[in-house]
Amino acid sequence: MAEPVIITVAITGALPRKKDNPAVPVTPTEQIESTHEAFEAGASLVHIHVRNPDESPSSDPALYGRVQEGVRKHCPGMIVQFSTGGRGRDQAARGAMLHLKPDMASLATGSVNFPDRIYENPPDFVDGLARTMLDNGIKPEVEVFDLAMLYSAANLVKRGLLKDPPHVQFVMGIPNAMPVRRSIFDFLRSEIADVLPKATWVAAGIGRYQWEVNQWCLATGGHCRTGLEDNLRAGPDRLASSNAELVRKIVDDCSRFDRRPATPAEARQILGLAPAAPS
Fold first, then answer.
1. Is the four-CA dihedral 168, 127, 269, 49 of positive or negative sign?
2. Which of 86, 90, 98 lies closest to 14, judged by CA?
3. CA–CA separation, 43 vs 170, rounded Å?
């Protein structure tokens, strides 16, 4: 039988502005609607950022709560993942919504240079976020923007701050961080098999590299991430005008690699998550 692939949809990020990119869902209502469309298209996991009314990045738990409630109501079983990323948000606020107990949350395990700043994740901060997720029954998605972050994740597992097996995402294509090269992608797969042999993994290609990395993942047994958060950085080379369209692009290509979209129940089983509670 075809092997299931978990399709993550990153519906909106901190960068694209709605006035320049009308397809970007900004308000909770828009985000819920866009997530539902992507869910119907075949996505089983949603990665969520929220915005203030002025569209700046927000850590407001009320906004996260509204989106989570709507997704759980309209997308039965879909895995909800909150972003704890730092763009425009103070470190102290980045985990402020974790008491809402989403299924998952992102966890970058080190600092890295971005084009215009340092994405700071000092060791004590990473430990604190990991412990908060552990205490709230949240499975982290380890964000690997640079190679050292993979070994930091293995150290968290060793110290009991990250449950084994972890789920790891390789982020490729951000300038100054990890480039999109097939040799690097293959090396990362080799290393994760060695240092975190039980782990599941996904790779995200940023901007114009999104579709290329999607195909690498389909071909090698990994899972896929797509969505406007990453793809709008491609400018005129972007692949689609909606999150659902990006999801359908992966779904339509699955059979070429003997893959098929995982159902939400299958995705939960693959990631070791509890079955969804009734909505």
1. negative
2. 86
3. 19
β partners of residue 9: 46, 226
Judged on CB neighbours under 10 Å (0-12, 13-18, 19+), 65 is middle
Question: Above pLDDT 70, what percent of the chain?
Answer: 96
Domains parsed from the chain with CATH numbers? 3-271 (3.20.20.70)
Distance CA 228, CA 170 (A): 18
Catalogue the E-assigned strands of 20-89.
45-48, 50-51, 57-58, 79-82
List strand residue ranges (DSSP E) for 17-138, in order: 45-48, 50-51, 57-58, 79-82, 104-108, 112-114, 117-119
CB 68 within 8 A of CB 91: no
Reading the block at residue 185, the tokens are 């992608």
Contact of 101 with 164, CB cutoff 8 Å: no
Tokens (6 digits) for 195: 């240092």
Whether the ω angle into residue 4 lies within 30 degrees of 0, i.e. cis, is no
Q: What is the pLDDT of residues 138-167, one digit of tens each?
A: 999 999 999 999 999 999 999 999 999 999
What value does the mean pLDDT take over residues 225-233? 86
pTM reported for the whole predicted model: 0.96
